[in-house]
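We both want to read discrete structure tokens more fluently, so let's practise on a single case. Once you have written the record down, we can walk along the chain together.
***
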Amino acid sequence: MKKTLFVLTALAMPMVAQAEVPLAPEKMPEATIQAAIRDFADPWCKTGFQGLVDNVKKCFKETSENSPDIDKCVIGHYTLYYTTRYLQEYSHERGLEDPTQNISFVGRQMTHDRGVHYINLPRYKNVKASDYIGDPAIINFKKIRADLKECPAN
């Protein structure tokens, strides 16, 4: 009887732990979108591409995957993805050095693996992640792209 109780308890533990992860709301909260703009797009003129990379790394490092705050980090990841691809195309078309080439955090495989990992978090099982996260990331990217034309140093 004790063995059976122990086995049942051990089997139930992962289910209990997973049930504690809050599911994403149907729509990304506006406060999260604004926080992502503040942390990832707004500093662009001061910090440039490396600052964006550093801010995304810091967000993931300081945020639990089980926290609703992870949404902001995932927005940051996709903002970084769109910005990386844009800078690569921009520099290639103009014969300039690619400013992303020596930054492993934005390498294709690492970016892909990180995206797959985070998009498959239990938090996102009830939403279409590409819409939930993609649209806010595009808002951020468009702000960065507009700022590229206005920033004196970038």
